[in-house]
Amino acid sequence: MLNIINVDRIEGSGSGLIRDGVYDQIRADILSCALIPGSTVYENELAQRYNVSKSPVRDALLRLQEHGLVEVLPRKGYRICPISIADAHDLYEMRVLLEKSSVGRACDEASHEQLVSLDKFREVDDGDLAHWVMYNRLFHKSIAELSGNTRMAKITCEVIDQFDRLTFVGVSNTNKIASGERFVSEHCEIIDALQSRDRSKATSLIMKHIQKSRKRLFAVLENPQIVD
Predict the structure, then answer these.
(1) What number of other Cβ atoms are within 10 A of residue 140's Cβ?
(2) Which CATH architecture has domain 14-80?
(3) Residue 82 DSSP one-character state
(4) Is the pLDDT confidence value at 1 over 80?
(5) What are phi and psi of 70, to 5 degrees?
(6) Which residues contact 72 (CB under 8 A, 6 or more apart)?
(7) What's the first-to-final CA gap in the chain, in angstroms?
(8) Residues 136-143: what's their mean pLDDT?
(9) Range(s) for CATH 1.20.120.530 in the chain?
(10) What residues does CATH 1.10.10.10 cover in the chain?
C-alpha cells in the first residue's frame, strides 16, 4: 500500500516541524473549504485557531500564496482565493494537453524500472479526503516526471499542484469509499497501459480520467457558495 507522508520540507529543528504542521493544517482547511473561499483571514486569528505564534502562520500563508491558495492584502490581512470557474476551465485545458504529452512520452522514454515503480499507486491506505487528494496528486506528478522532458515535467507538476482544492471539491459530495476504489481502478488501468507501452490506450485513458474529474467538479461548482 502507498503510505503518504508529507515531505514538503524536512528539518531537524522542532520549529521546522511546527511550521510544517501549521502549513498542513491551514492548507487542509482551505482544501475542505473550512476556510471559506473569498474570505479574509488574519495572522492573529489563525494563530489563535491553531494555538501557535504568528510567525509559523505567516510563513505558512506565504507558502500557500505560492500555490495559489492565498493572496496577500497589503495591511489588510490575507484572502482565501475564490474558486474561479474560468480559471478551472483554463487549468483543465492545460492539464489535458500536458498530461496527454507526459503519458505519451512516458510510454516511449521511461525505463522498465521506472514504469514498475508506479505499482505503488495500485493501492492506497484509507484516510480522509485530504489523504486521497494527496495520493491523486502524487500519482499524476509521478507520471509527469517519467516523461523524460524536464521542463515539461516541471510545468505539468506546477499545474497539478493547483488542482488539489479542485479535486477536493469535486469528490466532496461523493461516497469516499466508492470514489476511492474507482480512482484507484482508473489509475491501475493507466498503469497497465503504460507498462505495456500502449501509447494510444494510455493517452486515451488519461484523457477520459481527466474529463471525468472535470465533470465532477463543474457539477459541484453550480453551488454559488464556493464560486468566485
Answers:
(1) 27
(2) Orthogonal Bundle (1.10)
(3) P
(4) no
(5) -140, 145
(6) 61, 62, 65, 78
(7) 38
(8) 95
(9) 85-226
(10) 14-80
pLDDT tier at 82 (50, 70, 90 boundaries)?
confident
User: What angle (nearest 5°) sits at the alpha carbon of residue 212, between those of residues 206 and 215?
Assistant: 140
What is the signed CA dihedral for 38, 84, 139, 19, rounded to 10 degrees?
-20
Q: Supply the pLDDT for residue 174.
A: 63
Share of the chain above pLDDT 90, in %: 55
Q: How far apart are CA 211 and CA 16, in angstroms?
A: 39
pTM for the model: 0.76
3-state secondary structure of 40: strand
Q: At what angle do helices 176-195 and 85-109 cross, to 10 degrees?
A: 40
Q: How many angstroms separate the CA atoms of 49 and 35, rounded?
A: 11
State residue 149's pLDDT score: 95
CATH hierarchy code of domain 85-226: 1.20.120.530
Q: Looking at the DSSP assignment, which residues form a beta bridge with residue 2?
A: 124
Per-residue pLDDT at 12: 40
Grid cell in block for residue 67: 500555490
Q: Give me the phi and psi of 159, to 5 degrees please.
A: -65, -45
CA–CA dist 3, 200 (Å, integer): 31
Amino acid at 63: R
